[in-house]
Amino acid sequence: MHCAFVPPVIDVPREGTICDIRDDAKGVVVFFDTVTDANTADALVGCSVLVRRADLPEGVLELEEGGIEGFDVIDAKCGLIGTAVSINEMPGQHLLEVAREGSDKTVLIPVVDEFLEGVDEADRCIFVNLPDGLLDL
């Protein structure tokens, strides 16, 4: 599978092809044809790996049965915001739609690393840390 490393890093490959994927004691390790030494791998730490949707195995992006609908959305500062309704796939980014607690309104939260702190599937909770004012929009 062909991949792109972003953001680009000077003096290391910007693209590569996945050669191998292995389970390791620390998690999953992915090997790329253009990452041939530890220095190159170290330079790419923190980068994202992008692939074309068309290259992904069928169904890999589908949410498991039930998806995130009904998950409680809990902010680090405000506490319970409401209940997850859906994830809206927009061209620029995905938005988590949340039905506000005690209201008939919904709020859209960008699904980005800066806001998302974690998901507890067992307790059906999504933990976020939203910037001040986002819920007032």
Estimated structural class = mainly beta
Count the beta strands.
10
Distance between the termini: 40 Å
Main beta sheet = 6 strands, mixed
The value of Rg in angstroms is 18 Å
Mean pLDDT, to the nearest integer, reads 86
Specify the overall morphology: elongated
SSE sequence, one letter per element: EEEHEEEEEEE
Sheet with most strands: strand arrangement: 8-7-6-5-10-9
The percent range for helix content is under 10%
Number of helices: 1
As a percent range, the share of strand residues is 35-45%
The low-confidence runs, each spanning 5 or more residues with pLDDT under 50, are none
3D architecture notes:
A hairpin with an 8-residue loop joins strand 1 (2-6) and strand 2. The protein has 1 helix and 10 strands, in the order βββαβββββββ. The strands form 2 sheets. The chain has a 6-stranded mixed beta sheet, with no helix packed on it. A 4-stranded antiparallel beta sheet has the order 3-2-1-4, with no helix packed on it. It starts with a strand and ends in a 9-residue tail after the last strand. The longest helix is centred in the first third of the chain and has 6 residues, at 38-43. By secondary structure, the chain is mainly beta. The relative contact order is 0.14.
Secondary structure layout:
Elements lengths: L1 E5 L8 E10 L2 E6 L5 H6 L4 E3 L21 E4 L3 E11 L4 E7 L5 E5 L5 E5 L4 E4 L9
Which short descriptors sum up this protein?
six-stranded mixed beta sheet; 137 residues; elongated; mainly beta; four-stranded antiparallel beta sheet; 1 helix; 4% helix
